[in-house]
Amino acid sequence: MQPGQENRPLFDKTLLLVLFILFLFVSPVVYWWTNPGSPWYLPYLLWLVAILLGALIHIRQHHES
Q: Whole-structure pTM over 0.85, yes or no?
């Protein structure tokens, strides 16, 4: 096995999480959750989802090693 290959799945999952966060907070999706008619807690809910996904990735990686 090449050096660094054992961390490849974790890196891929982390990269996907970063891309998901960029999609939510930088793309045109921002107009959806900043709409005046959207609930005040929606940005916090989106951050909660991002944090929970990060925690899930960390927990699964910790159990696999």
A: no
CA-CA distance, 10 to 57, in Å (whole number)? 8
Contact 43, 33 (CB under 8 A): yes
List Cα–Cα distances, 36 to 28, 30, 39, 42, 47, in angstroms. Answer: 15, 12, 8, 11, 19
What six digits make up the tokens of 4? 């660094």
The owner of tokens 């900043």 is 34
Please check the confidence at residue 16 and state whether its pLDDT lies above 80: yes
Percent of the chain that is helix, strand, coil (3-state, to 5): 75, 0, 25
Spatial distance between the Cα atoms of 25 and 28, rounded to a whole number of angstroms: 8
